[in-house]
Amino acid sequence: QVKLVESGGGLVQAGGSLRLSCAASGRTFSSIVMGWFRQAPGKEREFVAVISKSGAITNYADSVKGRFTISRDNAKNTVYLQMNTLKPEDTADYLCAADGGLYSISDYFRSQRYDYWGQGTQVTVSS
Length: 127
Prior knowledge:
Blueprint: E1 3-7, E2 10-13, E3 18-25, E4 33-39, E5 46-51, E6 58-60, E7 68-73, E8 78-83, E9 92-99, E10 116-117, E11 121-126
Parallel strand pairs: 2-11
Antiparallel strand pairs: 1-3, 3-8, 4-5, 4-9, 5-6, 7-8, 9-10, 9-11
């Protein structure tokens, strides 16, 4: 079992920045792939970013590429999502997810690939 706890959400003006954190426990952190998803009210869950076990490989949704950066600190069992140049359309509940990494990193845009999910942290971007 992997427990995930997100933090760092809040209210920010358009153009601003936030950094989300997700602390993991219950399994050797360096053995799991970590991803971020988001879900706005009335919309489906959407892939945001994924990072490989070592942190060497990252993938992003086109909608956040160049603005968001995913990173991980395996010594602190934490994955981060640095969000810059935020837009009102980035408003959503942001969830981190974890998986043992049986699939190609390019396949982790699918939410079905993840076995573990956090409760989410709300991000609201005002215009």
